[in-house]
TrEMBL record:
UniProt name for this protein: CMP-N-acetylneuraminate-beta-galactosamide-alpha-2,3-sialyltransferase 2
Catalytic activity: a ganglioside GA1 (d18:1(4E)) + CMP-N-acetyl-beta-neuraminate = a ganglioside GM1b (d18:1(4E)) + CMP + H(+); a beta-D-galactosyl-(1->3)-N-acetyl-alpha-D-galactosaminyl derivative + CMP-N-acetyl-beta-neuraminate = an N-acetyl-alpha-neuraminyl-(2->3)-beta-D-galactosyl-(1->3)-N-acetyl-alpha-D-galactosaminyl derivative + CMP + H(+); a ganglioside GM1 (d18:1(4E)) + CMP-N-acetyl-beta-neuraminate = a ganglioside GD1a (d18:1(4E)) + CMP + H(+); a ganglioside GA1 + CMP-N-acetyl-beta-neuraminate = a ganglioside GM1b + CMP + H(+)
Annotated residues for binding of substrate: Q139, N180, N203, Y263, Y299, G303, G323, H332, H349
Membrane topology of this protein: Single-pass type II membrane protein
Native organism: Acanthochromis polyacanthus
Family assignment from sequence similarity: Belongs to the glycosyltransferase 29 family.
Length: 371
């Protein structure tokens, strides 16, 4: 009996010890890490944070602050932007200037009309009746024909022009207008003249034997029946019609050869590329007479018409061989002209006033004048 009681006591004690051990094991497994973390030293806390940092924080990219722009750099950028904007708005791509840019010269802007149509076209010429009446009275012709009928016949022989002479922001068209003055002698301007995109010559101009001074390229040759010459292949014959008969002559000279007289005997035929022939608009004569020569003389000279024509088809114009030579003589560079003063005395053209206009164009930077 006593033994049984002792065994019961031992069993109860063993059960109590077992329960105590089990309770401690459960406490260590579930609650010890929390206690350890809450009691961690500064060193332990740092280690725990480093070990358990969220991946999103570890992989976050650093954003650098924008570069600091100084006041000087900001001003420089602004000036470059304004310069690019101004360049983009210019009518042509020439570095120095564009003729059709009307800023900078009130004198020029009051005279230059960008809407003028320098070339006669098959249709849509929009003739001003007053200008046409003035032109028809310059040099009387037969009244048997009308301008419309003459033009119709003419454009059956030559090709109607299709080019557009308006300036383009992507182009810089340079033109040399070469007169026939004796001041071209010994000038040495030949290479400079030939370096231009277009080279305009007039009347009976010759180049052979004078290449060093006048160059050898020609893209446009201005003439009228009384000054006609053969025009080389690839060159545009540009007719200056001072009368209706001149249009009839052009049609004939490139086809039948029937017209042999105007107010004097003229060449009945000329050689020229029919698809490159251009005819100056009669209304353009009146425009030059009104706006540029201001009614000095009866009508503008060939040289003056060529310069103003160039102002309307080019972006930069250089002028050579105009005016008297260094001794004051008026003659052609290829000959001694014994009628040197005739041009100044006829009253048909005003050489003095036209010279003033040319020098003013140079002063205002619209042409480059080589004397």
């Amino acid at each position: 009996m006593l033994l049984r009681r002792k065994l019961c006591v031992v069993v109860v004690i063993a059960a109590i010890l077992f329960l105590m051990l089990a309770s401690q094991s459960i406490q260590r497994r579930h609650f010890l890490p929390v206690s350890a973390n809450s009691r961690a030293t500064p060193t332990d806390r740092g280690s725990v944070v480093a070990a358990t940092a969220p991946p999103a924080v570890q992989n976050k990219k650093l954003t650098l602050p924008p570069p600091i722009t100084t006041r000087f750099e900001a001003q420089e950028k602004k000036e470059v932007k304004e310069e690019k904007s101004q360049y983009a708005q210019r009518p042509c791509s020439c570095l120095e200037s564009c003729i059709s840019d009307l800023d900078g010269s009130d004198w020029f802007s009051q005279r230059y009309d960008p809407e003028q149509q320098p070339i006669l076209r098959e249709t849509n010429n929009n003739f001003d009746p007053a200008a046409l009446k003035w032109w028809l009275a310059l040099q009387r012709s037969s009244k048997d024909q009308t301008l419309e009928s003459v033009m119709s016949e003419m454009f059956q022989v030559i090709s109607p022009p299709t080019m557009d002479f308006k300036p383009l922001p992507s182009k810089c068209r340079s033109c040399a207008v070469v007169g026939n003055s004796g001041n071209l002698r010994q000038s040495g301007n030949g290479n400079l003249i030939d370096s231009h995109d277009s080279v305009i010559r007039m009347n009976k101009a010759v180049t052979r034997g004078f290449e060093k001074d006048v160059g050898n390229r020609t893209t446009h040759h201005f003439l009228y029946p009384e000054s006609a010459v053969d025009v080389g292949h690839g060159v545009s014959l540009v007719l200056l019609p001072f009368k209706l008969r001149d249009l009839e002559w052009l049609t004939s000279a490139l086809s039948t050869g029937q017209v042999k007289m105007t107010y004097m005997r003229v060449r009945d035929r000329v050689q020229a590329d029919k698809d490159k022939v251009l005819v100056v608009n009669p209304v353009f004569f009146k425009y030059v007479h009104d706006q540029w020569t201001e009614h000095h003389g009866r009508y503008p000279s060939t040289g003056m018409l060529a310069i103003i024509f160039a102002l309307h088809i080019c972006d930069q114009v250089s002028v050579f061989g105009y005016g008297a030579d260094k001794l004051g003589n008026w003659h052609h560079y290829w000959e001694e002209n014994r009628y040197a003063g005739a041009f100044r005395k006829t009253g048909v053209h005003s050489a003095d006033f036209e010279t003033e206009v040319i020098h003013r164009l140079a002063k205002d930077g619209k042409i480059s004048l080589h004397l």
